[in-house]
Design a protein that fits this description.
Order of helices and strands: HHHHHH
Radius of gyration: 27 Å
Structural class: mainly alpha
Number of helices: 6
Strand content: under 5%
Amino acid sequence: MNTLGKKIRLLRHQKGWSQEDVAKRLDISIPAFSKIETGITDVNLSRLNQIAKLFNLSLVQLLSTSDANEEKEKFEEINELNQKLQVRESEVIDLQKKVIDLYEQLHKK
């Protein structure tokens, strides 16, 4: 089963629909829909648009390989790393100031 087929299957299960339910909504046979889910058949753009609309998604969302939770986790990780970087940058600036102060003290004598 390909990634797109898995995603369509997951979306169908989330709605509580059978393959027959989705096939009827797409006006295709159950075996034709089954081949879409299993990746046996290639899906044309028109059919992809129809599937996306059926699940209230944009075509980009349907074709996207990452899910919202994964994106949220990555975003949170990036924010956490940015915060750590800001702390480190602040520490470096403080150390630079101390070095300058020490240098000035040494040269005043």
